[in-house]
Task: structure prediction
Amino acid sequence: MSVPEPIVIEELTKYYGDVRGVEDLTFSIEPGEVFGFLGPNGAGKSTAIRVLLGLLRPTSGTARVLGHTVTERTRSVEHRIGYVPGDATIYGNVTGAELLDYFAALSGDERREELLDRFPVPIDRNVKNYSRGNRQKLALVQAFMHDPDLLIMDEPTTGLDPLAQNELYELLLDERERGVTVLFSTHVLSEVRKVCDRVGIIRDGKLVALENIGELLGKSGKIVRLDLVETPDPEELLFDGAIDSSRDEDGYYRLVVTGNFDGLVDVLDDYSLRDLEVEETSLEDVFMQFYGGEPES
Result:
């Protein structure tokens, strides 16, 4: 018996009046995959997630979660999903324990104690007295404690200290080994590289890249740093195969080269070279190629 893909989005479009949220968004996520959904704030990530959660209805197109469209999903499907928002807003006039008891009555809590060991919070105190980080840790415990098949996470490390962030990364890798599927939405590039199998990059509501991370980096070329005696304009160093040229504060020229190093040799024939460094492309470099500016952090 084949297992349905946990998330399938086909030509999904959502407008708020005349304002575009997402448009013609199409991708799917495989069972047991940690999928990075990458883009800066305002790119459309949260709109897509709200559609997947059934909080928004699509303007057009379809989205299916665990084999059911978002408009027909049943309560039995809801029990198989965990959701973690960024900067969780939680009703404050109850203790952490009371809040977890409430969600346990809805979906179960067989993993509560295990998760509280990993993300300790003062569960006997009122949530309104929690720090931002403790609210986020409580949201993580609530999302994972009923052992869902699918986790939808919208910038889940917001407010977490470095130790808690690393604990979450370890948890996600453990869950992947168990076959749990994760949609991990973020604008923090370093954490995508740590935990994700594939990445979808969204810009202005549209998907601009969908790749295995290693393949995406491989297609994006290498970074060549040059220290020249002369000081030409960076554009004078461009050639067929160099997709970007700039000059760093330390005076080095920085080229993104996609493989045509013969062209680089020809260009350098006109200059006096002091030093040359070749580096692997980073996810930040890829992000800059799609956005034409500094990535958010």
